[in-house]
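Lecture notes, structural biology module. Today: joint structure prediction for complexes of two components.
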Amino acid sequence: MLTYILRRILLMIPMLLVVSFLIYLGLELTPGDAVSYMIPPDLGGQISPEQMEAIRESLGLNKSFIERYFIWLWGAVQGNFGYSLSGGVSISQIFLDRLPATLELSIAAILISTVLGTALGVITALKRGSATDITLTIGGMIGLSIPDFFFGLAALSFFALELGWLPVGGRLMPGYETFWDRLPHLILPATVLALSLTAGVMRYSRAAMLDALSQEFVRTARAKGLPEWRVNVLHGFRVALTPVIVLVGFRLPFLIGGSVVIEKVFQWPGVGNEFVSAVRSQDYPLVMMIALLSVLAVLIASLIIDILTAVVDPRVRL
Amino acid sequence: MHKLTTYALSAALMLGTTPVWAQVANPLSDARVRQAIAYAIDMDTIAETLFRGLDIPADSMIPNGEWKVDGLNQYTYDPDKARALLDEAGWVPGSTIDMVYYYGDQDTVDFMTAIQAYLADVGIDMTMRKLEGDVTGELNVPPSEDFQTSGVTWDMAYGARAALALQEYFNVYSSDQTAYTPPTPEREDLIARINGSADPEVLKQAFYDFEEYENEMLSDIPLYYRQLQVYQSDRLDRHGADLGNENFIYDNNLINWTVEPNEDGEEVMYIGGAPEQFFEHRWLNPGGLTSQMLFDRLLTANGSLVTNGVQQAESYTLSEDGKSITFVLKEGLTWHDGEPFTVEDVVWSIETALKTPTMNSVFVSTFNAIEGADAYLNGDAEHVSGIVVDGRSLTLNLIRVDANVLTTFSQFPVMPKHLMADVNPLEFQQHPFWQNPIGTGPFRIEEIQMNDFTRFVPFEDYHGGTAKIDEVVAWPGGESDESIARNAAAGLLDFGSTRTLSNVEALREMDHITLTPVDINYTRSFRVNAFPFKPE
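The predicted structure, tokenised, for the full assembly:
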């Protein structure tokens, strides 16, 4: 087992290298660079091509692509992710500043979606074919189909602007500090984000529950005369929960990347929002850091799931 | 044979050393073709419909007002005349023009589509593409040394020019800056005239002559003036202060503004313009309310950006020949951190600005005119010899008249040498100072939550008195940010300005918001590549 885990961890290294190179290459192929964005076109003509080159040289952008990649890589290996090209702030600092906001939003959304999705999935499975099942299934499909930003804008318009119950955006009002102060700001973005995730969890847990309920041990439990709620909860639900946990595990990387769209819609000062700005301004050290950590989170989540699967089914270790 | 191919072959034969495939003749070098394009577009209808009546059709790059000459050709929509001019110029119907643009909004796409239809109607096919990446670079590729072949590959570029000084509209045509129109002796002379005097009447006549010249030449085909829409909530009282060009700094009576107190009895004003990752440095784009709150200037300007008084300076004197200006600084001014504001800060700021590439062109023009600036930039001198300090007095000796020297010092913010002395001018924006800047202005920063909000409070030692508002909260986002409408609707925006049509439309539906259009130096046009040849 230990060999298997070590082998998987070692495999992550070339994967990370390849992915980092591909992201870097993608940024390189994008027209322009960070310096291009420093002078708005409406103010164009105010800086000569020579001056632009001088800035590029100062920021190390006129080196060859390969050279820049290896400089970045060498720094990253040593834990130095560099500085934002547009603002000069340490990338690690930016990440540390933004991460709490993203974690707050993502954890809340995952919690809501897991609890709500599982509960609704179980209900629809238990009431299979009923009006409740059909209604919730259709609702789930709608939830999967409608884009986040639409939900977000509609929720903002109704709950924040029309009813005035909740703030229109941001993470905190000036002068307030605690989590409880932040809670009203969290409700809308977390709920909107959770709704789209809920639909997936609901569909998944419904299928898992139906599958569990059709197993022989459930029939046996029922034949033994156990109360229906015990059959459903202790026998059916416990078994159905396993694939749901795997699904939630696959969503852990989401904690890092957050939701770019929702953060943008709700002016949430998290990593996703920062990522949008960084891509727009071609701030490649920042893009690299955020993208790579998201990839790393995916790999780690995948590793954890593989390990758990291997524990359950030794054949995968072969 | 297709006429463009003929042009290409003749071009190659004329230039000899240039390969046939390297360049093609440019029909837009004929002024009649440019005029035909101007006649082919019904800008009045576009402004009224597509732009919802918010834009004003333009007949010159220079905005309407006292600096605009009367009697310019309006190029009123006349497709027959456009066709006749094209025919006269030998235009082959169906020949294609490559139009580029750089705005990403739907209005621009709609506008481009309308232009495509208008041009097709007179026999001009138009392709369009959005510039991505190094937009400024692609718009400003220098031409060949003999000014025969453009460096830019496009035929026409839709864009805007936002100017601090009117000279900026025409200085871009000068032989050392031009990217899309070949210099002519007449134009070079006109450029020298609009920059060569401090006398407003002399300058005005020079501008009139330039406008008439360009009205024929159409290096830019002027399209429309976009006004700035200043919004103000009914909570805010500016106590009679005039509205002006919010894109720059003007005397707006900020310290006397008041807002309705909140439930705690505090006067809190909400605005936009807070930083997302860093505060924008103010030597390129000096304007904005947050810039004004933090940084005072040596001089002040009125809403039309005409110098009207002093701020950090106690007095100033411009010599009769316009080649020397002396400032005497106020005594006892301090930075927000309590350090004294000195003449050394001013000298350091000017010298550093000379070496900073991301700099407003009006400032560049002024500082380059200081005696000894060249030697300083070349590394032959440690300081600029034309800057003379005597106690609180600072004299700048200029090698030539700079028409905008007063404008420069009503906009240029002096930076604290004691916090920025180690800055690399090439990485001016990347200095840690821009994470939490200080100035000598009426408000100082109390709290920054990057990309969330910034709180400003009155600077108690401000030389002009303490501001009446207790606190200013700024949200992130610029004038085109969609959060403007949302924050305003929620009562969390009291003052600001925007040129974005969707924001304007949303704001004017709100009962508690008053929108006031303000004329500014902002003209949208088609830059026309008029060099005889262009790269293929």
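Point to remember: The first helix of chain B runs from residue 3 to 15.
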